[in-house]
Amino acid sequence: MVKAVVLGASGGIGQPLSLLLKASPLFSELALYDVVNTPGVAADLSHISSPAKITGYLPKDDGLKNTLTGADIVVIPAGIPRKPGMTRDDLFKINAGIVKGLIEGCAQYCPKAFILVISNPVNSTVPISAEVLKAAGVFDAKRLFGVTTLDVVRAETFVQEYSGKKNPSEATVPVIGGHSGETIVPLFSQATPKLDIPKEKYQDLVKRVQFGGDEVVQAKDGAGSATLSMAYAGFRFAEKLIKAANGEKGIIEPTYIYLDGVAGGDEIKKHTGLDYFSVPVELGPNGAEKAINPLTNVDAQEEELLKAAYAGLKGNIEKGIEFAHNTPQK
Ligand SMILES: NC(=O)C1=CN([C@@H]2O[C@H](COP(=O)(O)OP(=O)(O)OC[C@H]3O[C@@H](n4cnc5c(N)ncnc54)[C@H](O)[C@@H]3O)[C@@H](O)[C@H]2O)C=CC1
Ligand SMILES: O=C([O-])CC(=O)C(=O)O
User: Fold this and answer.
1) Where does the record place the Lactate/malate dehydrogenase C-terminal domain (predicted)?
2) Which domain holds residue 101?
């Protein structure tokens, strides 16, 4: 019996993500929350003949409390998306406060749930979330995840054009660091099966993964950013997490975590000088069971990419922590 929650469920990501969760036999209950339209989205999805019992809440009548009570996994795609010309950091002003408020709800009503943060800028919204949970005395680093799966999905997809692999799902490419531009570092040298990327194409491929989000923002031309591919990626991560929690072994996915509270995280923290970093993580009954260190094995080009990522992430993390400490609780 697994209760899943989507916060921001009426949005571009929230709706297709809720559809995928509703259709999955892994979930027995699905609660949708948004500031608009959730009764309609829930009524629509309720006609699908899968087992999950579905409810939709608005803020009125203790909506957040009713949504979150009893939740095992909370996925958060609430907040505004980019328009052309904006960086993810430009979203901070609005989304930081939205995420902070929703995490305060999680701390109060479902302190043991797995929390998956999609809202941008992920590099900062995850540190904000951790600080809120710490202040409430319920923080467990193993249960808080910044969702960077879309970067992995993009790397696995784009690499096929360069490697001759016909089926992208055949390639596993670790993508580490953060979730914005140069903080995204694909490790093609650690792909399985081994890839042979022509030297002259390497830079292009890296840039496509780092700036894949911009590609979609440009193409949508003011109507938002990636939603469908993000719903796919968010579902993929949620599904793997629940399968691992149910006892399936050997499930590893990159995700942006607080390194201190996860086994193996210390070593990565020493190497990066950062408290938060996305690395491949072995998932299990308690969530993030073990962070796997990919940093001792990178090639010279990846080492250069990592230097830029460390510099960018440091500021993003500090900004999130600062915000959490200096904004009063609601
Ligand atoms: N982590 C990742 O890889 C990705 C992250 N994103 C981020 O996901 C977020 C959502 O994107 P979209 O779904 O396209 O935006 P959207 O605008 O279509 O949907 C956002 C939803 O959040 C709701 N919302 C706003 N404030 C809320 C609150 N306080 N409580 C509950 N719901 C609230 C809105 O009503 C709306 O329905 C953006 O910040 C975007 O940048 C987008 C793509 C990939
Ligand atoms: O680019 C954006 O703003 C949305 C996002 O995070 C992505 O598509 O990776």
Assistant:
1) 148-323
2) 3-146
Burial class of residue 168 in the structure, from the number of CB atoms within 10 Å of its CB (0-12 exposed, 13-18 middle, 19+ buried): middle
Rounded to the nearest whole angstrom, what is the distance from the C-alpha of residue 201 to the centroid of ligand 1? Answer: 34
Mean per-residue pLDDT, 289-302: 96
Least confidently predicted of 187-201, 204-218, 283-297:
187-201
For residue 321, give the DSSP letter. Answer: H
- Whether residue 154 has its Cβ less than 6 Å from ligand 2: no
**Ligand 2: centre distance to CA 117 (Å):** 13
Cis peptide before 121 (omega within 30 of 0): yes
Tokens representing 150 are 């879309």
In the chain, the number of structural domains is 2
Annotated binding site for substrate: 82, 88, 120, 154
Average pLDDT for 165-191: 89
| Same domain? 185 vs 260 | yes
| Pocket lining: 35 vs ligand 1, CB cutoff 6 Å | yes
Query: How many Å apart are CA 54 and CA 30, to the nearest integer?
Result: 5
Name the nearest CA neighbour of 242 among 282, 283, 278.
283
Catalytic residue status for 179? yes
Pair 137, 87 in one domain: yes
Q: Is the CB of 56 under 6 A from ligand 1?
A: no
Confirm whether 118 is domain-assigned: yes
Residue 295, pLDDT score: 97
pLDDT at residue number 207: 97
- Residues 136 and 69 occupy one common structural domain: yes
Distance 17 CA to ligand 1 centre (A): 12
28 is a domain residue: yes
Ligand closest to CA 123: 1
Answer yes or no: is the C-beta of 15 below 6 A from any ligand 1 atom. no
Give the per-residue pLDDT at 166. Answer: 66
